[in-house]
Amino acid sequence: MDKITAIRGFKDVLPEDARLFWEVESIARKVFNAFGFREIRVPIMEKTELFKRSIGETTDIVEKEMYTFADRDNEHLTLRPEATASVIRAYIEHNMSSAEPITKLFTIGPMFRRERPQKGRFRQFNQIDVELFGEDKPQFDAEIIFMLMHFLTGSGLKDLELEINSLGCSGCRPVFSRAVIDFLKGSEKSLCPDCQRRINTNPLRVFDCKVETCASTIANAPGILDFLCSDCEDHFSKVKSFLSDLNISFIINPRMVRGLDYYTRTAFEVKTNALGAQNAVAGGGRYNGLVSELGGPEVPGIGFAVGFERLIACLPEDANNKFRTDLFVAALGAPAQKIAFGLINRLRIAGMAAEMDHTDKSLKAQLKRADKLNSSFALIFGDKEIDEKQVVLRNMQTKDQQTIPLDGLQESIIKIIKER
Ligand SMILES: [Zn+2]
Ligand SMILES: [Zn+2]
Predict the structure, then answer these.
(1) What is the pTM for the complete model shown?
(2) What share of the chain has pLDDT > 90, as a percent?
(3) Closest Cα partner for 262 from 285, 232, 229, 239?
(4) Which residues share a beta bridge with 110?
(5) Tens digits of per-residue pLDDT, 73-92?
(6) Other residues' Cβ atoms within 10 Å of the Cβ of residue 123
(7) How far away, in angstroms, is 91 Cα from ligand 1 center?
(8) CA 283–ligand 2 middle distance (angstroms)
(9) How far is the CA of 253 from the centre of ligand 1 (A)?
């Protein structure tokens, strides 16, 4: 029979990676909690309209990459391509703004985009998503960036580079957009078909375009920072100064516009050189009009997303993805195996990772298995040890051995493992 394989662009997270996911997630939860963020779990599917309205109709995501289909009652549904829209939808739906003037939320889970499959890119990928609603003060921008940097460093990422920019507001950005359109006038031919088509609806998209000729054409375009109104300029300079107060170094990148329509004012990206080339591991920004755009109150917001797969790929080689076993019991003969069976299961409910081999393999073969399982200790005993009422505990790293009385064995082992 033919094998059934996973869908193209979708992949299994195998145990070694899953362990890293778990480790990174627990660091995220710990850091975010300390900064007052609470977890929210939103569905992976939403009405298509939500993403069209939030991400913008003329974006690559909405135009080409969403998994959208008609449900049986012909309602159009989409597998979420990002989490911000869903979190805002939930924030509005549950009227969270009335309970909490400043609402801090995070969510972790899979997103879906039908991109062309290529190395390191998947159609189902995972993100850590953080959103803060209710405040426009620059302290919050600095704080959320500080938290992001702290989380990424805490995960083990090295060589991080933070880039920041301001994308202006609904007052000053249109002036900038107009200037970009004027700048691109006459150069339309060197733009890719997508950029040509969007030049009047969404000219800033050219900054994000990966096509070589688009990139070289836009290279000398005006920069947004020359167009900021005085409020936006003041906001941006305060963000910079608060970041400096927190000892966070940054690079100002006036060409970073971030791919989504909804960003206003502060935008940021974190890159790392860990894989040889520069890779973005996280990005985000402020979106002051988005909540009301989606039918909610006039509430400012700011957030970021971390690409889980990218983060894990950028972790140093020695990342802690090895499974560890606390104790392997090498039991020789039926009486010893019977004692071992009860022992490992009691140790497990006491929180120890304990294993044994339910076969009659030689001691040598069993110790080999203990090594394979990365076991810290091996407990060795057979008929003779049962008669003498004492067993041998071997430290698998140092190879030191000690004898332990069979009486009170479980307590002695728990004590030794905990002291390790
Ligand atoms: Zn402005
Ligand atoms: Zn282009």
Answers:
(1) 0.88
(2) 77
(3) 285
(4) 126
(5) 999 999 999 999 999 999 99
(6) 19
(7) 26
(8) 21
(9) 17
